[in-house]
Amino acid sequence: MRWDAQALVQAPGDGAAPAPALLPLAGLVRSVTTPEFAGITFHEVTAKSVLNRVPAGSRMPFEWTVNPYRGCSHACVYCFARKSHTYLDFDSGLDFDSQVVVKVNAAEVLRKELAKPSWKRPQVALGTNTDPYQRAEGRYRLMPGIITALADSGTPLSILTKGTLLSRDIPLLKSAAAQVPVGLGISLAMTNETLSEAIEPGTPGPRARLRLITRLREAGLPCGVMAMPILPWLSDSDEALEALFGSLAAAGATGVSAGALYLKPGTREWFMQWIAAHHPELAGRYRRLYGTGSYASKEYRAWLAAKVRYFKARHGFAHTSGFSHRDLDPRDEEAEYPAGIIPEPRAGHGPAVGPDSAEGAQQALF
């Protein structure tokens, strides 16, 4: 079906022609539903800026991000970005999965921002908040324009995704890698297809993502893996970790970072509801393990770190960069990106400070 022929969300009380949804979204053009994406509404907006500066003092190994989508149809129960949807007056649960904001002019605006004389070409990270290769990208095709704009401007880029739609852009990424440093990463923390279908129901399954890793490596591109989150009592057994790290090694991953489930506010409530519904026998154990905070206990993280070290060494990842579970400060776990995701610097691509624009200094990662 033609996308433009699908229904626009009706304005309340309006029985006439479809109209844009009455939502407090800056730059809203229209809101669209379609049978192809049952249960999901896409809110198309025109953005004034798409380059977002990461706050000073952040542990992240990059200073700038671009996120062409907000909200994510991958519907990962554990997604750390859920709370960001509340800033748009959506909830962090079902709305995050089903109300997806699309910056339809992202590539055009980005190209203009990158052309500013003040832009010094620091790395730009894609996929830091919501997935740039979620299913809607098949329709909107925002990433080719974004990748091209970054490469043409001489700006290094990195992409982190669960979406196998990335394979569509392998030729483009190979071309971009001839122009600028490019890093690629796949998010994959389990090989159990049944568990994956239950807890990250909108994503391609583990086997499909493993095949994508192999395709990227066969194309001569790097590919690190973020094996996060490891789920207590669900994916942290010796059998589960052996299957995970063995599969990643066989697929050709260039590096792996692993870390325990992180339950920040907004995510915690949604995840605990899921645990109570799907694994009621674990609900009390999770409450005790996480207490009132976002992180598992230090004892659990130390225990998991030892297991991860063993399986990394067993499968040839012991000397790859990017490892998590810092005992003194668990926040460092979030900033550990494995080899292959962060672009390797080349001559002429050193650290730099980007533009001073207020629009560019938006809240991090959004």
Alpha-carbon Rg, integer: 20 Å
Q: Sketch the major β-sheet.
A: 7 strands, mixed
Give the class from helix and strand content and strand pairing: alpha/beta
How would you describe the shape?
globular
Please tell me the overall pLDDT.
Answer: 86
Care to count the β-strands?
11
Helical percent range?
Answer: 25-40%
Query: How much of the sequence is in beta strands?
Result: 5-15%
Number of helices: 11
The topology string of helices and strands comes to EEEEEHEHEHHEHEHHEHEHHH
- Low-pLDDT stretches are 1-7, 10-22, 321-331, 350-366
The strands making up the biggest β-sheet line up spatially as 3-4-7-8-9-10-11
Q: Distance N terminus to C terminus? A: 31 Å
Account of the 3D structure:
The protein is an alpha/beta fold and 366 residues long. It has helices at 94-98, 106-114, 137-140, 143-152, 170-177, 193-199, 206-218, 238-251, 267-278, 280-290, 298-314, and strands spanning 28-33, 41-45, 52-53, 64-66, 69-70, 99-103, 124-126, 157-161, 182-187, 224-230, 255-260. The strands form two sheets. Strands 3-4-7-8-9-10-11 form a seven-stranded mixed sheet. Helix 7 packs parallel to helix 8 and helix 9 (267-278) packs antiparallel against helix 10. The chain is globular, with a radius of gyration of 20 Å.
Top keywords for this entry?
366 residues; alpha/beta; 7-stranded mixed beta sheet; 11 helices; disordered N terminus; disordered C terminus
Provide the fold topology.
Blueprint: E1 28-33, E2 41-45, E3 52-53, E4 64-66, E5 69-70, H1 94-98, E6 99-103, H2 106-114, E7 124-126, H3 137-140, H4 143-152, E8 157-161, H5 170-177, E9 182-187, H6 193-199, H7 206-218, E10 224-230, H8 238-251, E11 255-260, H9 267-278, H10 280-290, H11 298-314
Parallel strand pairs: 2-6, 4-7, 7-8, 8-9, 9-10, 10-11
Antiparallel strand pairs: 1-2, 3-4, 5-6
Helix pairs in contact: 2-4, 4-5, 7-8, 8-11, 9-10
